[in-house]
Structure formats: C-alpha cells, structure tokens
Amino acid sequence: MQRLFGTEISGNRRPGTELSEAARAGIIAASEAGVSKPEIAAEYHVNWLTVYDTINRWKNHHMLKSLPRPGQPEKLT
C-alpha cells in the first residue's frame, strides 16, 4: 500500500500523542463518505475510540485544531 504525499508515517508518531489536523480531516472526510469507524481506525492506525472522539468533537465544535486544555497556565519566568 502506497502512502499519499503528506500523510503521516505511523512509525514516527508515539502512542498517545495528538493527531495532526490533516489526520483529523481525513477521519472526518472518511466518516462522511460512509466508511465504517473500525475501517477508519485501521487505516489511520489509531484506536477506535479516537475515531469516535474525533467525529464527536467535529460535530460539537466544527474545529480541526486542538481545544485549550484546563490546568495551570505556563510560568513566564
């Protein structure tokens, strides 16, 4: 299977890291095209829960960027 130009190499991404905006857009596009969620998870080498969460975040916020996380702000000095 040949990768498309600009797609992420799964070996370069550590488990538990964020998806790129391109990967999120691809998951959403595949879902809207009617591809099943387990097939999307296998294609992008992510857990099926990641696919469900990505689609739900798109439905709620319509953003591909990461949302701000709660917590203590970074120290400036």
Q: Biggest sheet: strands, sense, closure? A: none
Structural class estimated from helices and strands = mainly alpha
Q: Assign an overall shape.
A: globular
Write down the overall mean pLDDT: 83
Low-confidence stretches: none
Strand content: under 5%
The end-to-end distance, rounded to whole angstroms, is 49 Å
Helix content: 40-55%
**Helix and strand run:** HHH
CA-based gyration radius: 14 Å
| Number of E strands | 0
Topology:
Elements: H1 21-32, H2 37-44, H3 48-61
Which terms would index this structure?
77 residues; mainly alpha
How would you describe the overall organization of this protein?
This protein is mostly helical. The protein has three helices and no strands. The chain has helices at 21-32, 37-44, 48-61. It has a domain at 20-61.
Summarize it.
By secondary structure, this protein is mostly helical. The chain has helices at 21-32, 37-44, 48-61. The model has no long low-confidence stretch (mean pLDDT 83).
